[in-house]
Write a structure and sequence with these properties.
Two copies of one chain form a homodimer. By secondary structure, chain A is an alpha/beta fold. In chain A, 34% of the residues lie in helices and 22% in strands. Chain A is built from eleven helices and 17 strands.
């Protein structure tokens, strides 16, 4: 394969060498364990503090447990993992820093808001595809309580939430990638640009992120010269019900109909009626644990042949929000295929 | 070259294809312009708000200007740059998000505290070395006022600072990397692990980061089978006077003497006596603008043949600090060589 064929179209890459997703793990909190995917997660903890004193350290523990489980499933040790590509939602990535330092693995810290699951898988794939390592890990986390404290109000305020608001998933998903043959292959990625439609409502992040997802999906189809039906599923990270509707309509205007194969991790992870979770789940952990627990098993057994996984992120902080800035979105796409 | 030779030793990579640093630019604030490197910077702005309403938007403008200048010097447009690898110190990387969105270039958002200049150059090098793009950009920024607001106190408090404290540099450095021959080549990288020595003083970040720098430098020498004198300079990012002394002593214990060729961007950028900057400069922008304005010209003309550039980061947030956590450090090393 000549070098020129690695990058295709405007924003996509295919990989010169095979990139396999050889192991993954999902660790979630109590509420996620009570949701529709409850039986699929590797570990559910009834104590959302995971035995720690603070919400932030609880989130660090989520990452630690997810990585340990993913390595254990692949019979690998920390020494076997050459790089970590990891991030979370908290200012200065503290869940990641304090969660992963004990492993003593070289770390690339990432921030892509809730799109970080896609960003970390993209960079990890690029690393394996280039032959820079035998095995690397991609992982992300979010925690309902640390995110509320960071972005909104302390839980003790018990503030009300509009129905457009999403519920941050308490969870961490870890993925091991390798050049060694596995059951699921990452065949390409499409890397997102920031898209700003001027949305200023931080309680409606689905609307802020949907345009970025629409752009990314349209670009992926163009770059790979595919139609939506070339994918068994097109899976967004955490648009929720509000964002899903906007996404499907935005793509219809571009004559792209994904209504038949679109799913959203934020919609799948909670039971809207019974769990009071508004528009759906969100956070770096939402798409990561849903990919690990729900989609990967179907890709491994071949009941899904090819999916486009598109975690979406809303790029805001309390500072930018309070200063009247908009909430730009970004999305990162990863193509996963059954490898037989 | 066989694939197995790309990764060497425990933490390092060499590149299968040549990676060149073809252009760079530095934009700084008034104080940096008055310092010892003042004449070397591409742009100095007397107004530290850079015409914006907020410190955060001022920092965004720094990144925007630095990237525009770096592209202009190379006679390239945004369309020619396939990926941005970028980050800053602010929670949720808002300086980067709001600074770079207008370019509409696929973005990998990064967080490595003040080590992000090294992290971004590392990932950009990996991308070019693998043939994933013709041209990519790596850029970082920091701003004294946005950092003080984020990490310490609003400027209006006029609080006192211990002499061990560093002064966050207002500046942004942008770098363009390409496979096309240029005067400076990136020949390898060494990627850092988190090192936590239990330091809890956020006003003494040099001490928190020095152990990570020492580990990284020792590992680089081992991985590449070099001695310190194989480098004309070993350049850390922002250890300052306090951190420099600790670094040199830590390495002496490992029988490595870098006292003859060690320099620190944080020490170079300000005049300690005249500018009242305590232990020295710090921030993502400190090492980036010093590399661009001070070291690259010497590498381009061949008066420096090979340097090891080691930006260092202190991984803390106000939340982790207030919860009593330590300040772990990380460092990322980049080997730059005169390419004739």
């Amino acid at each position: 394969m000549s070098k020129e064929t690695y990058y295709i179209g405007e924003q996509s890459l295919t990989f010169p060498e095979d990139v396999y997703l050889i192991s993954s793990a999902s660790v979630v909190g109590k509420k996620e364990g009570e949701g529709p995917l409850g039986n699929a997660f590797d570990m559910i903890c009834d104590d959302d503090k995971f035995g720690e004193d603070t919400w932030e350290m609880a989130e660090s523990t989520l990452q630690k447990e997810a990585l340990t489980l993913a390595m254990g499933k692949a019979d690998l040790k920390a020494d076997d993992v050459r790089y970590l590509f990891a991030g979370d939602l908290l200012g200065q990535n503290i869940a990641t820093s304090f969660g992963l330092m004990d492993y003593e693995i070289p770390l690339f810290g990432l921030y892509g808001a809730c799109s970080t699951a896609g960003e970390s898988l993209s960079l990890a794939s690029m690393c394996i595809g280039a032959g820079y390592a035998k095995t690397v890990a991609a992982l992300t986390s979010s925690h309902f309580a640390s995110a509320e404290k960071q972005f909104r109000f302390p839980l003790e305020y018990a503030n009300q939430r509009p129905v457009s608001a999403t519920w941050t998933v308490t969870g961490s998903g870890a993925f091991l990638l390798s050049g060694k043959k596995g059951k699921v292959r990452i065949t390409g990625i499409t890397t997102g640009k920031i898209v700003d439609m001027g949305i200023k409502d931080s309680m409606n992040m689905g609307a802020a992120m949907a345009p970025a997802a629409a752009d990314l999906i349209a670009q992926n189809l163009e770059d790979f010269n595919r139609t939506p039906s070339d994918y068994d599923k097109i899976v967004t990270g955490d648009l929720g019900y509000v964002g899903q509707e906007i996404l499907i309509n935005l793509l219809k205007k571009k004559k792209i109909d994904i209504s038949g194969m679109h799913e959203d991790c934020g919609i799948l992870i909670y039971d809207k009626e019974k769990q009071g979770t508004g528009s759906g789940g969100s956070g770096c952990g939402c798409s990561a644990v849903t990919l690990s627990a729900h989609y990967l098993p179907q890709l491994e057994e071949g009941s899904l042949k090819r999916i486009l996984f598109v975690p979406t992120g809303a790029l805001l902080s309390t500072v930018s929000f309070n200063e009247g800035q908009s909430v730009p979105g970004i999305a990162h796409g990863v193509v996963l295929e059954y490898a037989g």
